[in-house]
Design goal:
- With about 230 residues, the protein is α/β, with parallel strands linked by helices.
- It folds into 2 domains: about 5-15 and about 105-225, Rossmann fold; about 20-100, no CATH class.
- Helix content is about 35%, strand content about 10%.
- The protein has 9 helices and 7 strands.
- It has helices spanning about 35-50, 60-65, 70-85, 90-100, 110-120, 135-140, 155-160, 165-175, 215-225, and strands at about 5-10, 15, 105-110, 125-130, 150-155, 180-185, 200-205.
- It is globular.
- The two termini are about 20 Å apart.
């Protein structure tokens, strides 16, 4: 069956939060020792992993973690606790959290623009479906891609978290398509794969660093009969 619309996850799928030289000034321990490469990578993973829980919380902390993508205040509470639990001092944790929620600090994958433009050229509508508690629209708008996304469905705005079918249904309704003719592309089979409950197809991509994943989106669409090059 042909694909009439494509939905994309955000983090680890079309954009990725990556460190840059300025992070060296932030990722230091209480004694001033810089985090090594592995430790920096682990902190980034903890800030962006879609479903994994990395520590044990007290009851209020667990509530914040479980509902972090529904409320900006709970999101901040949960991730500051994760950063502190990862050995990041208080002041640096606040700085890192500010970077996490800055949509302009995120890096697009090399083929993100290519696939968005190719889908638009073919008249295939696009939606972004994300478990997130901040507005990611500026990440698209600053690159002129906002007009290529017909539905921006964010968990904190619609009150549902993937894999809950309601969040996918919201995007599908906005695009006005048959869920059986939709492809969902994401980096989590557990979260993004929830779209299959509505009859959609699912394509898994690996949330590698952007430099190491030049064409995963292109290849994922090709496997489902959509050429973007």
């Amino acid at each position: 069956m042909a694909i009439d619309a494509v939905l994309f996850d955000f983090s680890g799928t079309v954009f990725r939060l990556e460190d840059d030289p300025s992070w060296a000034d932030v990722l230091v321990g209480d004694d001033g020792t810089p985090f090594d490469v592995a430790a920096k990578a682990e902190v980034l993973r903890r800030m962006t992993a879609p479903v994994e829980q990395f520590m044990t919380f007290d009851p209020p902390g667990q509530h914040a973690w479980d509902n972090r993508d529904l409320d900006p205040a709970l999101h901040r509470q949960a991730y500051l606790e994760v950063l502190r639990g990862s050995g990041v001092p208080e002041a640096q944790a606040a700085d890192l959290y500010g970077r996490l929620i800055d949509p302009l600090a995120w890096t697009p994958y090399p083929d993100t623009g290519t696939v968005l433009k190719a889908l638009a050229a073919q008249g295939i509508p696009v939606g972004v479906v994300s478990n997130i508690a901040f507005d990611i629209r500026p990440a698209f708008a600053t690159r002129g891609w906002d007009t290529l996304v017909g539905a921006m469905t964010l968990s904190y705005e619609v009150g549902a978290i993937k894999p809950d079918a309601r969040i996918f249904q919201d995007a599908i309704d906005r695009l006005g398509v048959d869920p059986n003719r939709v492809l969902m592309v994401g980096d989590s089979a557990e979260a993004d794969g929830g779209a299959t409950a509505l009859g959609a197809r699912f394509a898994l991509v690996d949330p590698l660093p952007t430099a190491d994943r030049p064409r995963a989106l292109i290849d994922a669409l090709a496997l489902h009969g959509i050429a973007t090059q």
